[in-house]
Here is the input.
Amino acid sequence: MKHEIVETDVLCVGGGIAGLMAAIRARELGAEVVVADKGNTLRSGAGASGNDHIFCYMPEIHGQDINEAIQVWRKWSVGGKVAARRGAAWMQTWFERSFEVVKLWESWGIPMKYRDEYEFAGHAFPGHLVMTLKYAGQDQKRILTTEAKKRGVKIVNRVNVFDLLGNPNLTGAVGIHTREDKVVEFRAKSVILGTGGCIRLYPGPTPGWMANTEWTFGITGAGRAMAYRFGADLVDMEMSYHHAGPKYFARIGKATWVGVLRDPQGKPAGPFLSEPSRKYGDVAGDVYQTLFEDYAKSGRGPVYMDCRGISDEDYEYMTYWLQNEGNIALLSHMEEEGIDPRKHPVEFMTFGWTHTGGVYFDEKSETSIKGLYAAGDEFGSGISGAAVFGRIAGENAAKFAKGAELPPRNPDEIEDRKKLLKDMRGRELGPSWKEANTALQQVMVDHASSARSDTMLNAGLNHLRRLKEKARATMIARNQHELMRCMEVLDLLDLGELVFISAGDRKETRGTHVRTDYPFTNPLLGEGLHLIKNVHGIAITDWKEIKR
Amino acid sequence: MPPVIGKTKCDGCGICVNICPEDIFFGSAKKQVPQIAYPEECWHCGSCKLDCPREAIRLRIPLPAMLCYDSEPA
Here is the structure.
């Protein structure tokens, strides 16, 4: 196993939107910057093959009262999305700087206008503010990568960073090359986590075909897991939400469909729309988390996205944005199967449990660890939040690194981790990563999903801990690619354990966190963020006060 | 089973191998038609199809992911 050492001022872990925006800004401020990405920044992360809308607050369009706009956005975020749970200072910063990012992207060549105008549409209540700006983001990753390289950012592709280094002070991070038998040790003055959300903790809509996920398959909560192991504050790890979309083909993009969610008799399922509207989309799929399940269970289902009656212009509008949103596979599937949304209502569903807890970071993108920053879906904030807080993380990480010395390295830290890697590569027999991942998903869905109670959670946690020990001791990797997958599963096992502990500690029902033994929603617990952190190997829970 | 590569169109340029987020083409030889080593890890992002300069790639959607729809609505 080769061992390469890379030294830098600022290390960005993950080269998605957050990581690249952070890198660009830190480099502009004079820091040496390295981005490590387990894929290739040209097409990696949740924005790999595109996005078509970004949150943006423009005072001249949405009014000068920023607080009113924030309240509208919080209403849309019910049902477990992170924006509903963020503090006032964070929301204010996000809103204030969102247009700055839009203007920057426009200057770099990402088309932020539709027919020469800013176009706001989707994810909105009829008659209320619409704050999602349509943009043609199919090439966004190539453009952001070019901007980063232009400024002298060093991009290291195909390296999966799996742990932070230093004890007690942060000194860098360590990863494996996903194609060569090599460990890469990064020595850095500050580190920015931008590894995205957490997929594959719970099963998707087709458990027999695991890669049918609404978000990128390889986004497995690496940032959360390494931050936790290092001792950083994680928050709301028990919270989840359900993403809605076309039945069996897990895809984001529901607000891009110009249609109405209707029952088989054609009656609208939600209270917001009676006719298709490209301006608003049918927000029922956003705010009514159990809509599809309720209809099926009550004999009124299924629920269809019904686009019948839309004009040809609306249909072109819809397919144009779906293409930009990375939905070319969905569109080509419909074309090949003869599915025409103008004639055929398409059944919708919710895809399962998307974990929404994450690494706590404030309006300066600071985590609870000195020199460690986080952005984007490390604690879900979507494309706009990734861009804004990535930029802020870059600013503050560069300032932190300025004048600081490169911290000394401790070779023993690497040797411990190399042993684990060598063991997994060296075994001839044992479970694959997929076998372990499947076992994890089944205990998560059976013991920590829709009906949580102390007894179910305790039983599930005991099983998960046995599973974790066994996976760590027996998993095999035939090559570096499989080793990367094994490391992902070890992260997911750590995060699953935190979900069980946090869910057991939140003794109330809130959103999708349904405690059958505590059905009451305690207003006092809604004020704070639920904290969990690693103190000498023990998970400690607490509440973090947040001013909303 | 995700990308299907037209062998007569593909010139082995390696762009898809370079950019695939999930590295499903792991182990592909340079200047050859890529091998799809891990088809079950493809999540149909379509990056390979978007970036293929010879339009040699189509995406086959696995049977479990087939869309449900009403073919004869009232």
